[in-house]
């Protein structure tokens, strides 16, 4: 939309409830303006971000979202429906998508990326019509999402995940899930099933060590452990993304999978409980464009 003679217009939506949502935006605004982007505040910032993004399609050139993975998850539907590229200011607790994209953790440095790095296409996951960036899961991590209050995240940051996990771990029990994929149906007893679109999730976990948000694949794993303490032994592998090598972990790559359980169980997408089983999960290749370094590159102050 923007011509050569005027700045690009960037809808700037910041979630005030994000862990760093109270950040003074003056420096970020200055960085954006120096880079040729005029930040546009929404007329009613308390409105649903999906509505704000939909209305900006004809008046803005990009969307700039400040928040964590929950904020991005809430915006995913409108971003997929529209055509505006996305710029990310990581202001949340875990910022898993920002990590997967190699964006810097410092919001000011992330604003520099928005002005300098071209947008590139990435995939989205979709479960029962709900889009997600990082991962959809059933079982332990979905139960954890229900336990992990916003106050806990704000007070303890990523340590809050560990605090909530310890509370929940000893109460967890295996459940039966029927997995349909690539012409097969498998019946397993598991603590958790995860289906990743991106690489990172859950405040430091890794779906699969070489997964990326633009590989056109879903990365599946199921933790079929006999005792809760086995999860503690698997923790280093879960952080590296090598859990698929363990004998009691089922792992594969696919583009579509259906998860059925004996009774409806909540599905966690990017830290938010958004739907229930049966869960029909598919990858949507190149669904959204994001200002981020090329795959495998490292952003300033970030990790690839």
Task: Map the helices and strands.
Layout: E1 8-14, H1 26-34, E2 37-40, H2 49-55, E3 62-67, H3 69-81, E4 86-90, H4 96-100, H5 107-116, E5 119-127, E6 130-132, E7 135-139, H6 140-147, H7 150-156, H8 159-169, E8 175-181, E9 184-190, E10 192-196, E11 200-201, E12 205-206, E13 218-223, H9 229-240, E14 249-254, E15 256-261, E16 266-269, E17 272-276, E18 279-291
Features:
27% helix; 304 residues; six-stranded antiparallel sheet; Tumour Suppressor Smad4; 2 domains; elongated; alpha+beta; Rossmann fold
What does this structure look like?
This protein is α+β, with helices and mostly antiparallel strands. The protein has two domains: 8-117, Probable inorganic polyphosphate/atp-NAD kinase, domain 1 (Rossmann fold); 130-286, Tumour Suppressor Smad4 (Sandwich), CATH 2.60.200.40. The chain has nine helices and 18 strands. It has helices spanning 26-34, 49-55, 69-81, 96-100, 107-116, 140-147, 150-156, 159-169, 229-240; strands at residues 8-14, 37-40, 62-67, 86-90, 119-127, 130-132, 135-139, 175-181, 184-190, 192-196, 200-201, 205-206, 218-223, 249-254, 256-261, 266-269, 272-276, 279-291. Helix 1 (26-34) links the parallel strand 1 (8-14) and strand 2. Helix 2 packs parallel to helix 3 (69-81). The chain is elongated, with a radius of gyration of 19 Å. It starts with 7 loop residues before the first strand and ends in a 13-residue tail after the last strand. Residues 5-131 form the DAGKc domain. Keywords: ATP-binding, Kinase, Nucleotide-binding, Transferase. Pfam families: DAGK_cat (PF00781), YegS_C (PF19279). This is Diacylglycerol kinase.
């Amino acid at each position: 939309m923007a011509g050569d003679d005027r700045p690009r217009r960037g809808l700037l939506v910041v979630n005030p409830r994000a862990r760093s949502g109270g950040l003074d935006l003056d420096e970020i605004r200055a960085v954006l303006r120096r880079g040729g982007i005029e930040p546009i505040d929404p007329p009613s910032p308390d409105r649903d971000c999906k509505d704000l993004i939909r209305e900006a399609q004809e008046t803005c050139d990009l969307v700039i979202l400040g928040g964590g993975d929950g904020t991005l998850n809430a915006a995913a539907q409108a971003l997929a429906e529209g055509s505006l590229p996305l710029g990310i200011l990581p202001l949340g607790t875990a910022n898993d998508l920002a990590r997967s994209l190699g964006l810097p953790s410092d919001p000011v440095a992330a604003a520099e990326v928005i002005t300098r790095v071209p947008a590139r296409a990435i995939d989205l996951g979709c479960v029962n019509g709900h889009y997600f960036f990082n991962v959809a899961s059933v079982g332990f991590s979905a139960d954890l999402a229900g336990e992990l209050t916003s106050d806990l995240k704000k007070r303890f940051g990523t340590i809050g995940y560990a605090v909530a996990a310890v509370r929940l771990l000893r109460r967890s029990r295996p459940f039966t899930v029927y997995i349909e994929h690539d012409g097969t149906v498998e019946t397993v007893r598991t603590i958790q099933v995860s289906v990743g679109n991106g690489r990172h999730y859950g405040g430091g976990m890794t779906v699969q060590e070489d997964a990326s948000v633009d590989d056109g694949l879903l990365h599946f794993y199921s933790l079929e452990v006999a005792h809760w303490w086995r999860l503690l032994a698997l923790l280093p592998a879960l952080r590296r993304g090598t859990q698929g090598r363990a004998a009691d972990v089922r792992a594969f790559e696919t583009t579509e999978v259906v998860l059925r359980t004996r009774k409806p169980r909540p599905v966690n997408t990017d830290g938010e409980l958004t739907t229930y089983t049966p869960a029909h999960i598919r990858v949507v290749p190149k669904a959204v464009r994001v200002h981020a370094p090329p795959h495998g590159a490292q952003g300033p102050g970030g990790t690839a």
